[in-house]
Amino acid sequence: MADLQEINFVLHGPNGRMGATLHLPRIPLSGTPLIIWVHGFKGFREWGHFPHIARWWAGQGFAVLRFDFSHNGTQPETPFEFSNLEAFGRNTYTKELQDLLAVIQQATTLGTPITQYIQPSRVHLIGHSRGGASALLAASRSDKIASVVTWAGIGTLLRFSPEQLADWRVQGVTWIENTRTGQRMPLFSDIFTDWETHTRDYNLKHAARALQVPYLQIHGSLDTTVTPAEASALHLFNQRAEYLEIPGANHTFGGRHPWTEPELPAQTLEALQASLTFFNKALSTHL
Predict the structure, then answer these.
(1) Residue 179 maps to a domain
(2) Contact 185, 88 (CB under 8 A)
């Protein structure tokens, strides 16, 4: 896939700069469908096998946009590192939703860094983990989205432990460890205050029920980070949605960081093939 084009640039949104990479198929056309890849908590666009996943999609004729949320802790100059822990600690669900809606707008508006290369016929979202929640919330608020796929998507935003709540009440910050880098990463009370303020607006079950576009949930049977039971509970609120559980798959479908293997994991390929079939069906019904 060495002849597939990849363009790096910086997007500007309501909360600051967002590093981005656009992958183009061999013959990009004005009507080429675009997939926006949405990373999750402690994720970033260069994590593990995410770039390889994007190249796989480009090989299937899709354009793919990977981007970093403005407050995910990386910076455009340091896309592989959590170099801005203050921003990481101040991230909120609202910031991520605003960021994604801004990216969608720029992907469908002429004259932006994205549309100077491609004018997509359809925009699809793939959200991993917490990125699945952002994708679901954005799709229920934007008329630009043709379909949504979540990989290991969370079923609720209420994910705070009693210890974290106590830390926020007493000192306004709690700390988590990045086992990969050894960093102590702050989480300020901003995210809990944001959740309290928007509990009704950001209810994922309500968003799933209200979704008007095709929706596929893909989950691993061995996911201990977001359990299949959590995903199944969300699926109950949209019976039109499709649900696939991949036997033996974990939260990252076999991926890890860094990814140094020449091929994608078998569970990732299974998720990709299922997503491709789903997107093609969604495209054919909207022709």
Answers:
(1) no
(2) yes
Residue 48 maps to a domain: yes
Number of domains in the chain: 1
pLDDT tens column, 31-83: 899 999 999 999 999 999 999 999 999 999 999 999 999 999 999 999 999 99
- Taking alpha carbons only, the member of 231, 67, 223 closest to residue 136 is 231
Is 253 within the bounds of a domain? yes
Confirm whether pTM is higher than 0.85.
yes
> What CATH number does residue 29 fall under?
3.40.50.1820
**Domain encompassing residue 48:** 5-158+201-284
Single out the residue of 58, 61, 50 nearest to residue 5, CA to CA. Answer: 58
59 is a domain residue: yes
> What string of DSSP letters covers 217-251?
EEEETT-SSS-HHHHHHHHTT-TTSEEEEETT--T
How far is 189 from 156, CA to CA, in rounded Å?
A: 18
**Region of 253 on the Ramachandran plot (φ > 0 left; ψ -120 to 50 alpha; else beta):** left
> Cis link prior to 214 (omega < 30° from 0)?
no
Could you read off the pLDDT of 102-118 as tens digits, one per residue?
999 999 999 999 998 98
Taking phi first (over 0 means left), then psi (-120 to 50 degrees means alpha), and beta for anything else, what does residue 61 get? Answer: left
Q: If we measure between CA atoms, which residue out of 213, 212, 205, 271 comes closest to residue 235? A: 205
